[in-house]
Automatic annotation (TrEMBL):
Domain Activator of Hsp90 ATPase homologue 1/2-like C-terminal residue range list: 16-98
Pfam families in the record: AHSA1
Name of the featured protein: SRPBCC domain-containing protein
Family that this chain belongs to: Belongs to the AHA1 family.
C-alpha cells in the first residue's frame, strides 16, 4: 500500500476470534451488518474467501437514490489474522484481527481520489460500528 492517503478505522469486539471471523466473512451475516446506516441495504452478497477469490457487496439506499458495487479480489488471507484485497478500481485494503475476547479489528484502506477523506473514514467506521453491534448481540 502507498504510504500517503491511507485511512484507518477500527473497533473492538467482545467475542471470540472464531466467531468474529465467521461473522465478518459469511454472506448470510455480511448482509445483516454491512451498511453505514439503516438507510442502506445489501441487494446481493458474494464472498469467495480464498486468495484470488472475488467478493461483491451490491449496496443500495432504500429510497433508491444511491447505489454502488463494492467488488474486489483477495490477495492474501491469513486465517483469524488478516485479509488483504484489491478493489476493482485498484485501491488496496488490509483488515487485521488481533486478540481474542476482545478482538481488535482494524481496516486500513486507500480512499477514493477526489472524495472527502473525512466522509470516507466515517463511512468505514460506521460500518465497523454496526458490525460490532451485530457481533456482540449474538
Amino acid at each position: 500500500m502507498k504510504s500517503e492517503n491511507i485511512l484507518t478505522a477500527s473497533v473492538s469486539i467482545n467475542k471470540p476470534i472464531e466467531l468474529v471471523w465467521k461473522l465478518w466473512n459469511k454472506a448470510e451475516h455480511i448482509a445483516k451488518w454491512n451498511a453505514p446506516s439503516a438507510d442502506w441495504i445489501n441487494k446481493k452478497i458474494e464472498n469467495y474467501l480464498v486468495e484470488g477469490g472475488e467478493f461483491l457487496y451490491a449496496m443500495v439506499k432504500k429510497d433508491g437514490s444511491e447505489k454502488f458495487d463494492f467488488k474486489g479480489t483477495y490477495t492474501e488471507i491469513i486465517l483469524h489474522k488478516s485479509l488483504s484485497y484489491t478493489l476493482d478500481d485498484g485501491r488496496k485494503t488490509t483488515i487485521t484481527f488481533t486478540g481474542n475476547e476482545p478482538v481488535n479489528l482494524t481496516e486500513i484502506f486507500e480512499p477514493v481520489t477526489g472524495l472527502d477523506l473525512t466522509m470516507q473514514q466515517e463511512f468505514c467506521q460506521s460500518v465497523l460500528n454496526k458490525f460490532k453491534v451485530y457481533a456482540e448481540q449474538l
